[in-house]
Amino acid sequence: MLVHPTGQAHPLVEPADFAGSRLPEEVAAHEPQLRAVFAWAGEYLGGPHPDLGRRGAVCPFTDTSLQRGLFYLSVRGGTPSDPDELAALLLHYRDWFAELEPRTGPGAQFKTILVLFPDLAEFGVVDRTQELLKAEYTRLGLMLGEFHPGPPQKAGLWNPAFRPLHSPVPLLAIRHMVPTDFPFLRDDDTTVAAYLQRFGRRVPTHLRDEVRAAADRLSTPAGS
């Protein structure tokens, strides 16, 4: 378990912590929720799904993140009803994420923090918080993903009928943005611009036509 150097964020539970019969005392009150999300990550995110619409795992990075011990879970109790309140709670995790190793290099893409909100019954605040923070996080080279039992109504990229963001506990996930994230960013000029600034010379081959079209759209004045 990792403890924030100033105590401004709740502890981060590491994959190795789940090997024991009990989690550390500091997070024992939420052990059922933490174990449920840890199991969901390995079985659902790290595995295939018949409705996904492509081969491979739901999230291609999760299995490696777990194996490398870079998949961290934290819990925030309470029932924030306002996206600004939830955004403020995430601030310290966002900054802590930037300080955790690895900060650079290929291994950094597997670093992930999931912040669980087990007391939330109104899941819409999770969706609204992600929408509020999306542009800011992408400017910083980060992705913020929303998951909850609702589930969120965002459709799968390969199967529009699939709702891939289902989780047993409401949560927001922080990770580094990678070149293959463009499909999650293409519908907003702000996030497209952030992507182009970071990956303009490293666009995957299968995305180049789509990225080029988005870049052309940004360079065309409105109304012309």
From TrEMBL:
<protein>
    <recommendedName>
        <fullName>DUF6875 domain-containing protein</fullName>
    </recommendedName>
</protein>
<dbReference type="InterPro" id="IPR049240">
    <property type="entry name" value="DUF6875"/>
</dbReference>
<feature type="domain" description="DUF6875">
    <location>
        <begin position="35"/>
        <end position="209"/>
    </location>
</feature>
<dbReference type="Pfam" id="PF21780">
    <property type="entry name" value="DUF6875"/>
</dbReference>
